[in-house]
Design a protein that fits this description.
194 residues, Maf protein
Length: 194
């Protein structure tokens, strides 16, 4: 089975592909000839995932899934949330985003945060949503060179290393995206069994 993943983020695609059963292969947006930036104009993480999945299904006719992820920080009333990727501006630079977040939290004792991923799956005319959440803490200096986004400053609950210090397989077991993807995989496995 071929499914379009509404992303050109090679890190994300690799992370999800290695979790899927071998009979499901992912096509990126580029591989189906979609070169435009799909607008992410919803006010929620769920809304953005749905927007992206619907865009691909309506314009290109593929079964597809799309995800959206946000980092929700307790002391900032859930920000950056839906604006996580462009927190420091439309240029979407991970280092700038982390620096802005760290400066916002400079005098905060409460460093609690959670990553939330929502995957919207459009398949055979139906839509399903799968959510993954991982709680953790924002540390005050970047650590690690793996992963992407806010990974160097996020330590998951009951751990003492950041996502950026974990190998991909270890992160995939714990992460918000991993949790949501396993729900997606379970669903695809059940629906592809006669």
């Amino acid at each position: 089975m071929k499914l379009v993943f509404a992303s050109n983020n090679k890190n994300k695609i690799a992370e999800i592909q290695q979790m899927l059963p071998s009979n499901i292969s992912i096509l990126s947006l580029e591989e189906i000839g979609c070169y435009e930036d799909i607008p992410e104009t919803a006010s929620t993480i769920e809304g953005n995932a749905i927007l992206k999945a619907n865009y691909v299904t309506e314009k290109f006719g593929y079964n597809c899934f799309a995800d959206d992820t946000g980092l929700e920080v307790e002391a900032l009333n859930g920000d950056p949330g839906v604006y996580s990727a462009r927190y420091a501006g439309e240029h979407k630079d991970a280092n700038d985003n982390m620096n802005k977040l760290l400066s916002e939290l400079e005098n905060q004792n409460n460093r609690n945060a959670q990553f939330k991923t929502v995957i919207a799956l459009n398949i055979e005319g139906n839509q399903n949503l799968f959510t993954g959440i991982i709680e953790g803490t924002i540390i005050d200096t970047k650590r690690g060179d793996k992963g992407f986004g806010y990974d160097p400053i996020f330590v998951p609950k009951n751990h003492n290393v950041t996502f950026a210090e974990m190998v991909m397989e270890e992160k995939a077991i714990l992460s918000h995206r991993g949790i949501a993807t396993r729900k997606l995989v379970d669903f695809l496995n059940k629906s592809s069994t006669p």
